[in-house]
Design goal:
The structure is a homodimer. Chain A is an alpha+beta fold. Chain A is built from 8 helices and 11 strands. In chain A, 35% of the residues are buried.
């Protein structure tokens, strides 16, 4: 079963634990755009991405969003099982950015493994530390870095993920990634266009000068 | 030994583990202002506060600061032992805000306990989740909440901690808490003063109208 190859501490479980885990798994496929978890829903369980792309974000009361991290093949989403730990006092929403196939590990199965196995608990620790680091990085970006630098970095990252300089993305979507407003993003993109760094067309941003964006990103 | 009363999972350690832990402890006292840990220093170990007050913050290249959390009696500082986990990819500075007495648990002793004991690993998980939650809260504050609300909340929190409405604190220090500039804080405090909420004098902010600050905090 391919799950074993995606779960790095499989070999540290005893046979009984492996059987319990394997027997509880659910393989799901969701289309792009589907919301998999948010604060109001039941605890969805841990999600292990087989292929696809997920996005975790927070949302203000007025509906503004900011992406806190993205998950790719083999990444595990811990916060979709936040009910597992009483010290997690915040809510994220997890949505599919592409058609995504993933395994669900039911919360109570994982929680029991974590309680009886130090390797599972320590693996969970490393996952949490890694997400925590993502958020600290984001915090530093939003506190100390100006929006033009963040927008340049976002466009370059997006081009790397998509393997294309032609990005099919709306200004609204970019605003939701960066925790900004659509109008602000539009203004900044127009400035980028005037500088010859990008070209804008309906629902599309095309990168013309990678080097200039990289220089701006700093 | 009082350490046992401060360390909630003491009873879940076996005798050998208890002896190793107790034998490795160091009780230290530092004066207000002392920096206990920062990214450039060696891994200080885990700090368990016996009495006093610590502050963890991040700093920009230009020297701007923002407080990410504060630790009081019985709180444990995990990030001062960040070398323990390879997934922690950020650097915080930890400094004493008051004269503080604390135990140091050497990193390698704690790390070994964590590797062999699921309760220790899960306790560490909860600690990390709790700090992670602090930072997510802060992130939401800085993203969605305006500075006047954050300043009102800070003054009320500070008054609660000190048990006094007369706060001996400089505008520079407040700016370092909130990740802002001294000039911006001074302007906002003067606005608060004009509104009759506070009175300013050299090195001091006195709260005159708690209710008005609470209403502003929202």
């Amino acid at each position: 079963m391919a799950f074993q190859d995606h779960f790095p501490i499989w070999g540290k479980l005893d046979q009984d634990q492996q059987e319990r885990l394997a027997g509880s798994l659910l393989l799901r496929t969701v289309p792009k755009g589907k919301i998999l978890h948010n604060g109001d829903m039941d605890c969805a369980g841990l999600l292990l991405v087989r292929r696809g792309q997920l996005r975790a974000y927070i949302q203000s009361e007025e509906g503004r969003q900011i992406t806190i991290y993205r998950l790719f093949d083999r990444d595990m989403c811990l916060l979709s099982a936040s009910c597992m730990m009483r010290s997690i006092q915040f809510e994220v929403t997890v949505a599919a950015e592409k058609d995504t196939e993933f395994w669900v590990i039911p919360t109570e199965v994982y929680q029991r493994l974590m309680e009886e196995s130090a390797p599972v608990a320590n693996y969970t620790n490393e996952l949490m530390a890694s997400r925590f680091s993502d958020v600290m990085w984001l915090m530093e970006q939003t506190m100390w870095k100006s929006l033009d630098k963040r927008l340049a970095a976002f466009l370059l990252e997006e081009a790397a993920i998509e393997g294309s300089r032609e990005l099919k993305i709306t200004h609204e979507t970019i605003a939701n990634y960066l925790g900004s407003h659509r109008e602000v993003i539009t203004r900044m993109l127009r400035y980028f266009q005037n500088e010859g760094m990008v070209e804008l067309s309906r629902g599309k941003v095309t990168i013309l000068q990678v080097e200039k964006l990289q220089a701006l990103e700093g």
